Structures are given as structure tokens and as C-alpha cells.
Automatic annotation (TrEMBL), chains A, B:
Record carries keyword DNA-binding: yes
UniProt entry keywords in alphabetical sequence: Coiled coil, DNA-binding
Keyword rRNA-binding: no
PROSITE patterns named in the record: HTH_MERR_2
Taxonomic lineage of the native organism: Bacteria, Pseudomonadati, Pseudomonadota, Gammaproteobacteria, Oceanospirillales
UniProt name for this protein: MerR family transcriptional regulator
Record-annotated HTH merR-type domain positions: 22-89
Length: 146, 146
DNA sequence: CAACCACTTTACGTTAACGTCAACGTCGTC
DNA sequence: GACGACGTTGACGTTAACGTAAAGTGGTTG
């Protein structure tokens, strides 16, 4: 319970406790269409902390979720450092002091305004795309006509 | 009419024809909170093509709009190369051949699905943030209570 | 047992998007 | 006419996020 919540939904719905599977680095890499190198790099950057059986890494559900969140964060333009910051604070939460927690709330508020702007940006960008497409189709229609 | 449409809205509403102002590189930089270096770099990358009076660059409304679109694109995670691609095709539109236009439509569709996924990512991310915040507030409350 | 996988570490290479610094020209003004 | 603010080009530096190549380890399969 001290890490990112894999079961957020499976608590609400009645799904199985999700088989206690593990994954190799290669499996995980194929699942998310990244290279093993990328996954190792994320570990080095403090975003993942898989188990070790001897030399080789063993990933659990928790790690898979973290990777998923990381990649989602990246698609939204967050740096790995930003993502790590949130993950670290989240992990430190249960025994966190008040100052740390307030800092976390600040960061969250920050991300939230960021998301809001992104939503606005997307809306505006979609309009631009609409506009460009309409014009392109007009020109095309004229070409077809002649 | 052969460039990005500054007046997309001012045609629809009744706003003034927007003073035919010009801007220095420094003005533009302050407006958008970037450095002049950045603006020169964008020009070098083919995203801007300001007028020249002797050595010095002179930016018009058209350039300001392009810069705005470029920065918006960046916030959405597009590379400068991608942004340039769209701008170039847009500029080439009026006398574009059918193949070019179809290619443009493809790119647009591509960006569109990208936007859709971003929207979904944002929704999911917002839920995560909500979840984290709730937990953080719970822990805080427990601390205040004791 | 050899030949293949899949995995590991170490280390150097690469790309995008600028930052920074030097060296210079051009105003306005004190 | 020196000074400061702003502009220019050119070149090298920097950071993030991996890619890539070398060299080794550990299982299993023909």
C-alpha cells in the first residue's frame, strides 16, 4: 500500500486480483513498444526499482503500472525528472511530514493548471486543423472539377 | 492569403483589421517569454521568415501568429520539424498538386488522432492526480488530528 | 558441447533545442 | 564622443533521453 495504486479500479469493480504475474524486461518492452534500454534508463533515473533475481531484473504489476504512468507523462510533455518527483513524493506519503505533503499538493496543483492549459491548447489546435483541412479540401475539389 | 490565417476569427466577428504593426525581435521575445536566440533558431529551422530592413529582422502579424502556433505546438509535444512540415504544406497549398494535398490531409488526420490520445491521457492523468491528492489530504488530516 | 537466446554492465555516440560568449554594427542621448 | 540598449553573425557548449556497440553471464535445445 506504500506505492502507486495498481488496484484503483479492481477495488471498485469485481475483477480478479490480477494474477501475480511477473515480467522480464523484454516482455515489458514489447508491451509498451519501447526498448529494454529505455526501461533500464528509467530505472537509472529512479523511476523504476524492479526486483533482482541474481543479475536479472524481475518486474511486477507495480512496476508495469509505473512504467505506464511514466510513458503517459512523457506523452504529455513531462520530463522524467518531473515524473520522478511525483512518484517519489507519492512513495514517501504514508509517513510524510506536513511540509512534504503540502509541497506535494503544490506540485499537484501545478500539474493541474498545466493540464488545463493543455486542454485549451488542444482545443485551439483542433480548430486550426479543422481550418486547414477545410481549405485543403476546397483546393482539392477545385482541382477535381477542372 | 498564401500564409497561415491570422484573421480566421476577425472575419467571423467584427474586430478591427488589427493594426499593421511590426515587432522587433526583442518585443516578440518578451511577448512570448522566449529569448531572441530562440526566435532566430526557429527562423533557421524554417518556421519563421521575417522581413529584413538591412540586417535587422522585422516581424509582422503573420510572423507573430506563426510563432504563437509554433509555441503551442511545442507545448503539445510536437517537434519543430513536425511543425515546420505542416506550415510548409499550408503555405504550398494554394497551388498544391493533388498528391501534396492528400499528403497534407494524411498528416492532419495523424495529428488529430494524436490529439485524441492526448485528451484521453489528460483525463487519465487528472484522475491520478485526484487520487493522489485525496490520499495526501487524508494523511495530512490524520497528522493535524494528533 | 556448441550454438543460441535473452539478459547484464560499461561506455561512448547522437539528436533536438536551445544557451552562452565573442566580436561587431547602429542608434539615441548625456 | 563615450556609453548603453538593442541588433547582428558565428561558433562552441549543454542537457535530456535515449541509441549503439562491446564484452560477458546463464539457461536450453539440437
Amino acid at each position: 500500500m506504500s506505492t502507486l495504486n495498481t488496484e484503483a479500479t479492481s477495488v471498485a469493480n469485481g475483477s480478479l486480483p490480477r494474477q501475480r504475474r511477473t515480467y522480464s524486461i523484454g516482455e515489458l518492452a514489447r508491451m509498451f513498444e519501447v526498448t529494454p534500454r529505455t526501461i533500464r534508463f528509467y530505472e537509472q533515473e529512479g523511476l523504476l526499482a524492479p526486483e533482482r533475481r541474481g543479475q536479472t531484473r524481475i518486474y511486477h504489476e507495480k512496476d508495469r503500472v509505473r512504467l505506464k504512468l511514466t510513458l503517459r507523462g512523457k506523452r504529455l510533455g513531462f520530463s522524467l525528472a518531473e515524473i520522478r518527483e511525483v512518484i517519489e513524493m507519492y512513495d514517501a506519503m504514508p509517513d510524510g511530514n506536513a511540509r512534504q505533503l503540502k509541497r506535494l499538493l503544490e506540485i499537484l496543483a501545478d500539474k493541474r493548471t498545466n493540464m488545463e492549459r493543455q486542454l485549451e491548447d488542444i482545443r485551439l489546435m483542433q480548430r486550426e486543423l479543422d481550418d486547414v483541412e477545410v481549405r485543403a479540401r476546397e483546393v482539392l475539389a477545385r482541382l477535381d472539377q477542372d
